[in-house]
Amino acid sequence: MNYFKHKKNKGYRFPSQQITETLSKLPNIPINLDLNQNIELLKSAYTDCSDVVFREFTIGARTKAALIYIDGLSNTQEIDQQVLMPLVQLESFDPGTSIENVSKKLAVSDVLVIHTITDVIKQISIGNPVILINNKIKGISIGLPKWEKRGIEDPVAESVIRGPREGFVETLRVNTSLLRRKIRHPALKMKQMTIGKFTETQVIIAYIDGIASNTLIKEVTNRLERIEIDGILESGYIEEMIEDDPFSPFPQVLSTERPDVAASSLLEGRVVILIDGTPFTLIAPCTFASLLQAPEDYYNRFLISTFIRWLRYLFFFIALLAPSAYVAILTYHQEMVPASLLLTIAQSREQIPFPALIEAFIMEITFEALREAGIRLPKQVGAAVSIVGALVIGQAATTAGLVSSAMVMVVAITGVASFLLPRYAAGIAIRMLRFPIMILSGILGLLGVMLGIIAIVVHLCTIRSFGVPYLNSMAPLKIHNLKDVLIRAPWWAMNTLPESSSTELGNLHRQPHDQKPDPSKGGD
Amino acid sequence: MIEKGKISSFQMALIMYAVVVATAILYIPFITAQQAKRDLWLSPLWAALSGFLIVLIITKLYKLYPKKTLVEYSELILGRTFGKIIGFIFLFFLLYDTAIAFREYGEFVESAFLHKTPIVVVTGGIALTCAFAVHGGIEVLGRSATVFLPIVLVLYVMIYLFLIPDLNVKNIFPIMEDGWIPSVKGSLAPHAWLSQFSLLSFLLPLLSDETKAMKWSILSVIVSVLTMVYINLGNIFLFGGIITNTQFPVFQAARYISIGSFFEHVESIVIAVWVLGGFVQLSAFFYMLVLGTSQWLKLPSYKPIILPFGFLIILFSIWSASSFQEMIHSMGTTTPFYFISIQLLIPMLLLCVAVFRKKLRQAK
């Protein structure tokens, strides 16, 4: 500890002492010639860290050396066989051998020579064991990290009937490999950075060079570099730190756990941000239209996809407006309902004590609560909740005379409609916006509904995502881009990239124009 | 410049279309019918003349004073004092124009549904929404126009498509029974509406593609006129002689829609969709008013005066007419002269002086 105190007086400080600094900003203390001093120094940094292992051994019987790693982060079996064994069994060892030559003796592919104690700490913390040798001012970091990880599974939140079944996992390297397996071209770049004072989370910015615009890449990098936070545990942390309008209910960065979605975004010139420790990656920029595009749209045949997309648009409006339209029509515009239907509704509402607005509010809030409970509860209890929910929302409420059966229908349709939105974050936004519109419709009828819609559209016109207008290709109108908004154009007609991302490089061509299949092109 | 955003000529054309047509389709058929009788569909064609004339004058002025609005170049043309006075007159007129538009919108919604709601609630509600859009700037206006106007256009077309079984084409005969004078008399109100193209002056400096400005402005005038003709034709086919007694013919027409005895009484939906067009119109007026005022007062930003002007507009909308009948009456008689004298004569005067000055300078 003497050395440590001595150094401290000189201004050197260590993670346990100076917790306000990130690892990368620590002073660069060079590795000392004396092995014992180095170990002292490291041990002082790792005081009370029971998971750090210091294994001292000798090379060629005389030269002292030490292996340092964190238990559980490194592959000990491999270290024993490929590193310790050859070094310990070495008959004679010339103390003058350079560290580079030592590293050549190791049967490990990923070996790095390091110069400072800070690097030692960094390498250990990401799972690379480090070897320090006496009388050497360099160390060797060995790329043998290994920890327990989840296998690649079907992405739960974005399931498809047709399409790849693999999803991102919590390990960054696995995720980058999944992307690289889809896009093999060297133009796929992956810039790495570390964010988080304590978590030291590795973050990768992936983009395709030449498709993604440089301003976009620069903007994303700048925004990520600006982040100063103690820890990143999920991509949500980063999303909130980089979005354009923090007070908007709409997501301005897409998140996905599907490698195929990430890859297709890359091909469209967007930037993908991969974060260690979470299967959810971020995609920027995001437009309103992309919230309503499901991955499967691109795997099914285009006619079917177009139909399903229109269905989704229709139900988007139903999810947003059905309860408020019901309230408005029943309160202000009864003449719009055909007479026979009006009689049925009036009959079912005869004994209901509440006005339509209150009725709608009670039911919508109950429904939201049940849905939230269904997500949180353990699976065993979940079934009970759904039974109770079905009874509460459906039968019991109507027979008790609390709500009309028509209202139950409306709530049910709204509920189904909100599940049609492929992006969960967009679904939440719509669920939230439903309530203010309901109040407006209770006050001003259909006029109130329209005022609500206008306010939402104006808001959507205002926000941008990384410089791209949120309603891009609808407003400002770009006819060419509507091929992936209004319809899902067949792949042989998707000739150009969406302008949203590749603005500065012009409208890049994706493929030649004559891709339409035709018997005359078959050759026989 | 106060406004940093840019719009395309196409968006400008859409905004101008909304400015003219949104309230025009409510009131034009009734007001023109008073004079023109069954020749009411000819009246907008006469009015097209003032539309074209104003577009020509305004674009000519803009060429002489690029990147300037009417409020700004009136000072350059007439000198500071007179320029300020002309600017004030124009802005005061614009305030009145905006207020009248809000009143028209409010009266329509009142009489169609919400009979018991105070008109201030209706106009105040839309004023707040407009203020939200105006706060976003011209880009937001341009984009919301591209979102909303196609929907509104489809609605205009649909109303009369659904009514095809009830339309009687023979209603327009005999054409020009009393010569062309009645239709010219009836064109007074359309003249007033189309003279609002003078407001183009506020949008021209904000264009990203100025070369197309002329083309799109003229196109906007043509489409506005055609829409009026279409609506008037539809109404005369549907109502025939009783058109002179129908206050909101388009709204009345929507009541006739009945498809398969299930899809009927859709007038509330028609109004609801019409509100989208009304919104674009009102927020465009609102925007030009605050932009012009802040240019006149040389303010660094128009944002602080949005809400005060919202209040002022609501007040003026109440003051502008004591009753609905009075408003309609004045729109057929005095208001057009007010509109035309300000919106046609002022730009004309400015252009004359500007050209004269230019000649004088060249002579030297």
From TrEMBL, chain A:
Q: Which GO terms describe its cellular component?
A: plasma membrane
Q: Which organism is it from?
A: Neobacillus novalis
Query: Where are the compositionally biased (Basic and acidic residues) regions?
Result: 511-524
Keyword Nucleotide-binding assigned to the entry: answer is no
Where would you find the membrane-spanning parts of this chain? 310-332, 382-400, 406-425, 437-460
Does the record's keyword annotation contain Protein biosynthesis? no
Q: Where in the cell is it found?
A: Cell membrane; Membrane
Question: Which coarse location class describes where this protein primarily resides?
Answer: membrane
- What name does the UniProt record give this protein? Spore germination protein
So what family is this one in?
A: Belongs to the GerABKA family.
Sequence segments annotated as region (Disordered): 502-524
The membrane topology noted for this protein in its Swiss-Prot or TrEMBL record is: Multi-pass membrane protein
UniProtKB/TrEMBL annotation, chain B:
Please name the Pfam families in this protein's record.
Spore_permease (PF03845)
Q: Which domain of life is it from?
A: Bacteria
Family named by the database record: Belongs to the amino acid-polyamine-organocation (APC) superfamily. Spore germination protein (SGP) (TC 2.A.3.9) family.
Q: Report the locations given in the UniProt record.
A: Membrane
**Could you name the Gene Ontology cellular component terms for this entry?**
membrane
InterPro entries membership? Spore_GerAB
The primary location reported for this protein is membrane
Residues spanning the membrane: 12-33, 45-65, 77-96, 116-134, 146-164, 188-207, 219-243, 269-293, 305-324, 336-356
Identify its membrane topology class.
Multi-pass membrane protein
This chain's protein is named Endospore germination permease
